[in-house]
Amino acid sequence: MLRRNKWLTLFMAVLAAAVMLAGCSGGNNGEGGKTGATNKPDSTKAPGEAAAVEYPEGLSYWIHMNPNATATMATLGDSKIYQQLEKVTGTKVTWTHPSGEGAQIEEQFNLMLASKKLPDVIERNWLTVSRGPDDAIKSGTILRLNELIEEHAPNLTAYLNEHPEIKKMIMTDEGNIYSFPFIRGHEKLMVFFGPIIRKDLLDKTGLAIPETIDEWETVLEAIKEQTGGEAQFLQRISDIKVGHGFIGAFGIPLEFYNDNGTVKYGSMQPEYKEFLTVMNRWYKKGLLDPDFAAMDTKLMDSKITTGKTSAFVGYTGSGIGKYMGLMKDDPTFELVSTPYPTLNKGENAVWGQRDFAYTGIGAAITTAAKNPEQIVKWLDYAYGPDGHNLFNFGIEGESFTMVDGKQKYTDVIMKNPDDLPITQAMAQYFRASYNGPFVQDPGYIEQYLELPSQQEALVNWEKATTKMQMPLTTLTAEEGRQKASVMTDLNVYHEEMMLKFIMGTEPLEKFEEYVETLKAMGIEEVIKLEQAALERFLKR
């Protein structure tokens, strides 16, 4: 009997130890999972965190690949970042990447929705989705994430609790969180796009950096004459749409804007006709690139690196940095930034590029996901300290090292042994150079902008104000349906007429007729919807 009690006591002790170990294992606080787990006591859990959920064995993920990634990889599964993430979490990702740009991607997205064959995760800008994110939830496309994040995403939950202004941005007016957001973690990360010019060609003309629209026209004509008649200015439709092109010189963006609390639509204002008049004149003079309407990344690369373009609007990194890198064997090739142009000398442009900390880009979980809790845990990893390093700096010892407590990129990134441009080397190891579901670190941009011309660009471009920019409003599901019923056809007509006006196939004398057509198609009703959304946002 004594021996039996002894063994019983020993058995109970072993059992108790096993229970204690089980309670400490699994993915904790975004630090580990099925493999490489870091055990932490329950006291590390954020308020409301449920029992630890293991990472999924696999998931499917739909995302458009950044051009710097497609330059060296077939899928994101080929990247070092996601190979490392698989080692940490044990999760195998099946990637789907739509091809093309802009409207082509939207078409493939809509076809996917119509097929009812959804992946587990869709990453995109959800504020630009037809009918808005609330409708995507109500129609059964994606999940409301509020409770899932509170229970299973302690890293993101902690960040949002510390940054209530970001939480306000990522929620709809109905209170829904719909994606794991891309967040720019510092002011210096929010300006990165603007006008760029070939300084070596400009210097040959003897002219100064252009500041006004008239000065730009004079400069482009002078460079065109010197270079044998090539059209010198490249501005894509996508640049005009977001108000980052030269349209801002006329005081408006292409689409909706906030004029002291009143929503207006830029493309029906008299200033829009002024912009079209100038672009039409530049097109006729051979100053505006004739391929501007169908410009993709490869064609743009070709034009800039072969001297067929002397000025364009682009990025500090994949604009100035990329092309200076590609043309490093040409000692005469030099790119510099210019301020956003104005109509009058000495003024600062009222429109330029300045991102919000959140822009609508995020990873949403679809209703097709059979294990949303586990996917939430997997996505939350990027918002923890180890995931933050992985998504911003890559793999320690390969793409970065720690120097005086800061992450420093290695020569794999800054002086790539395969002679890759920095942007392409970065894309192999992390996502800080474009976007994704994580918080972008300012340490990325501090090292990325190594050229003085890149650093000067931020000074030039941040002079433009964005006080009339619409905040991140959201429409209700019903408002989203109403807007989509109007804007689907209106956007097609609007872009078609913009091209016709610029190319001269439709005379600008028909501008008023064009505006009346916009009204007949329902633009004024959509302005009212946007006005209501703005007023709701201001009351959040």
TrEMBL record:
PANTHER family, alphabetized: ARABINOSE-BINDING PROTEIN-RELATED, POLYGALACTURONAN_RHAMNOGALACTURONAN-BINDING PROTEIN YTCQ
Xref: SUPFAM superfamilies: Periplasmic binding protein-like II
Domain of life assignment: Bacteria
Keyword Cell membrane included in the entry's annotation: yes
A Pfam family matched in the record: SBP_bac_1
Alphabetically ordered keywords of this record: Cell membrane, Lipoprotein, Membrane, Palmitate, Signal
Origin species: Paenibacillus agaridevorans
PROSITE patterns assigned: PROKAR_LIPOPROTEIN (PS51257)
Signal sequence annotation: 1-22
Gene3D superfamilies: Periplasmic binding protein-like II (3.40.190.10)
Protein name: ABC transporter substrate-binding protein
